[in-house]
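Tip: read the tokens left to right.
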């Protein structure tokens, strides 16, 4: 980028994954508030719920990789941030297997796949804690946001049908932080 160019005219690519994760979680939350899912699926809304959940999980893996990429080798991120991104991504990937299978089948995934939820949720939570530490130290993400990251998963679960709205807000805020950091790096 030209040194005299306006920062607003930056051509730095804005990572799309956080926006996709936020939009999918928003779709999931709103649809769950308006419709109670039945399994086996009996309506289009049932498919939208499971499809949005599957899309959110996969997009969140790509989004956490974008978060890690903007931190690179920056001071404060380190192994803690790398481990957090890895655990968070693995947790989402494990949960995505039975969710995506359920979406494709239109009914619950076979029992052996259901056991992936337990380690998936545990890895997701552990990843959030480590990501919070790294984001707080590094400062790319606003520190108050970094401080509450570990609370997002328990809050999502506690809110039930509206819970995915927490994930939508989380990735919307993280997405803005990632985009700002990417623009700064491009200068």
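Filled-in amino acids:
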């Amino acid at each position: 980028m030209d040194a005299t160019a306006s920062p607003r005219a930056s051509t730095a690519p804005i990572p799309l994954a956080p926006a996709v994760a936020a939009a999918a979680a928003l779709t999931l939350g709103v649809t769950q508030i308006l419709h109670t899912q039945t399994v086996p699926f009996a309506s289009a809304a049932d498919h939208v719920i499971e499809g949005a959940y599957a899309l959110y999980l996969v997009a969140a893996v790509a989004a956490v990789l974008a978060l890690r990429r903007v931190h690179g080798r920056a001071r404060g991120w380190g192994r803690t941030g790398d481990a957090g991104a890895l655990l968070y991504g693995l947790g989402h990937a494990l949960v995505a297997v039975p969710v995506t299978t359920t979406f494709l089948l239109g009914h619950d995934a076979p029992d052996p796949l259901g056991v992936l939820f337990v380690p998936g949720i545990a890895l997701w939570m552990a990843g959030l804690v480590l990501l919070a530490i790294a984001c707080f130290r590094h400062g790319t993400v606003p520190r108050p946001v970094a401080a509450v990251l570990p609370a997002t998963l328990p809050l999502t679960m506690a809110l039930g049908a509206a819970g995915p709205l927490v994930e939508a807000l989380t990735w919307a805020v993280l997405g803005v932080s990632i985009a700002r950091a990417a623009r700064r790096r491009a200068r």
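The two ends are 6 Å apart (CA to CA). Residues 15-180 form one domain.
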